[in-house]
Structure formats: C-alpha cells, structure tokens
Write a structure and sequence with these properties.
The protein is α+β, with helices and mostly antiparallel strands and 306 residues long.
Length: 306
C-alpha cells in the first residue's frame, strides 16, 4: 500500500521489489476486480511485474526521458512498417496487422505478469513478436533475465527482445543489446533458449557523441506469428534504425524534457473551475494492503532463509 501511495504522490522512483507469494498475488487480483477505481488507477498509472519463480512483485517507474525516447523509436518503427505496407508483395499484406500496443499486462506461460516498455504484436498473434525494454545502470542486470523469460515463456513467440541501457546519474553513455530464440540440443534433447546476438553495444558515448556505422536491424517476419512468417519466408524486408538515429532520438527526448516554463504576468491570479477531487486509494483499499503488509512481515520474520 505504501508503494502505491508513493507512486501516486510521485515519490517512487526506479525499480522497487517486494516479496510476494502466489497466494498474495491471486488475492490482489481478486481484490482489484472488486475495486474498479483502484484497478483503473493501477492499470493506467502503474507498471508492475510479478515473478512467481522468484516470488517478487516489482513496481517500475520509468523516467520521463525513457518514455519520450521510446515514443520516437516506436514512431520510426511504425513509419517503416507503413512503407512496407504500401508495397505490392506478399509480406506487405501481412504487415497490415502489425501495430504497437500500449503498456498493458503481458501474461507468460510460467504465470509471470509483466508490463514491457514497448511491444509490437500482429493482430493474429497471441504474444508480441518484438519487445523493447529500457533500463538504467541499476536495473540493467534484469535485462538478460527478462529477455530469457519473454522468449522461453512464450515458446518462442517473442522473436526479438531489444534492451536499451541509459546510464543516467553516471555518464551520458547509452547501449543496446538484443536477444533472439534459439533451439539447442543438450543430451539428445532439444531445448529452447534465448541467445544474445548483441551485447551492450554503445550507440552514444559518455560525452554524448553518437556512434556511427552500426544499426538496429529487425526483420518484418520478427513481428509475425510463425505460421504467417512461413508464408512470406522467401521475402526479406528489414526495418533499419542506425545508431546515429537512436542517439538523435535520445538527444531529442532529453531536450524535450528540459522545457522552459511559461509564467503569468505580475498580479495575474489563476481561477479554475470546480472539479472533483483526484482519485485516491480508498480507506478500504488501504486497510487491505496494510493487512497484506502485516502478513508479509510476519512471514519474513518466521522464514529465516528468505
């Protein structure tokens, strides 16, 4: 409850994890179904992940620059997809079903729930084909784990996971990593794993200068479900975003975030209309979460090995 309050007050930053077992999570989902106002607030404002393997609930608060940078990147990808749609080959018709989804809950096969920073899904696909996650120097350690979970726990339906690391608070360096699914054979058994194809390649240096000569390259079939990708397997269409462009989008996001405030003239008083108070977590909601926190504290004390 305190974390949701901090999120609502704007005092929660970065990535915060708390112990949360599966029973707690099921109770939380049932509670939210009964309290629609709270559910709407969390669904609209809060990005949270639940990992049943690690028994952790994580609340993520992306920095404004992250969202602005992602908006530029998504717009570029969709613009290139639109150009492919204007073509007259077999893949042009298939590309019509590709779109970017808002940050909504993604359910994985191991029971995990996640809110990717960006994802692209074909209308006929169950899971997105391409996912993009942004991290900072503190949360970059999670990128490999997230990529593995996205790919393996969708049975390879996620074809590409792109990880962007922005090193704020230390330098202006920015890096890109990329993972794809791969089938390997171990002891005579075929296994699906995530394979890292690009590892922490710098696209903007510590002094904020861009790196040229390399690009983020995606195939249109990365965005398609396997059954449709096989139909157009003989057609190659690429979506190419040079690292120079990525650095430019990051520069724009930073510039856009540093805006000049508009001030009223001296002796001018603001007058606003009457309005309903902002939606807050109600007393019954607060009581529920306080009870959950109390239970967790007792469990934590009893479980010495946690």
């Amino acid at each position: 409850m305190q974390l949701f309050k901090k999120h609502q007050d704007g005092t929660l930053e970065g990535w915060t994890e708390i112990p949360f077992n599966t029973d707690n999570y099921e109770e939380l989902k049932m509670f939210l179904k009964k309290h629609r106002n709270l559910f709407r607030y969390i669904n609209d404002k809060v990005r949270f992940d639940y990992d049943p393997c690690r028994l952790l609930l994580a609340i993520r608060v992306p920095a404004p620059v992250h969202d602005l940078f992602m908006a530029h990147l998504k717009r570029d990808i969709l613009r290139q997809i639109d150009k492919i749609i204007d073509g007259n080959d077999s893949i042009a018709n298939l590309a019509k079903g590709i779109d970017s989804e808002n940050s909504t809950l993604l359910l994985l096969e191991d029971g995990a729930s996640r809110y990717p920073d960006a994802r692209f899904r074909h209308v006929k696909a169950v899971h997105p084909g391409v996912i993009i996650e942004i991290s900072n120097s503190q949360t970059t350690k999670y990128l490999g784990y997230l990529a593995d979970q996205y790919i393996v726990e969708t049975s390879g339906s996620v074809k590409v996971v792109v990880g962007i690391k922005l090193d704020y608070g230390r330098t202006l360096k920015a890096e890109l990593s990329l993972w794809r699914p791969q089938i390997v054979e171990e002891s005579g058994q075929k296994r699906l794993i995530s394979r890292q194809e690009i590892s922490s390649e710098v696209f903007r240096r510590e002094n904020a200068t861009a790196v040229g000569g390399k690009s983020l390259v995606l195939q249109v079939k990365d965005f398609l479900p396997r059954a449709l990708a096989q139909i157009a397997s003989d057609v190659q269409r690429e979506i190419v975003i040079p690292y120079l462009k990525l650095a430019e989008y990051l520069d724009k996001a930073e510039d856009n975030h540093q805006r000049i405030p508009e001030l009223l003239e001296p002796r001018v008083i603001k007058k606003t209309r009457e309005r309903t108070p902002p939606e807050e977590l109600g007393s019954e909601d607060e009581e529920f979460y306080q009870q959950k926190e109390s239970k967790e504290e007792k469990r934590a004390k009893a479980d010495v090995g946690w």
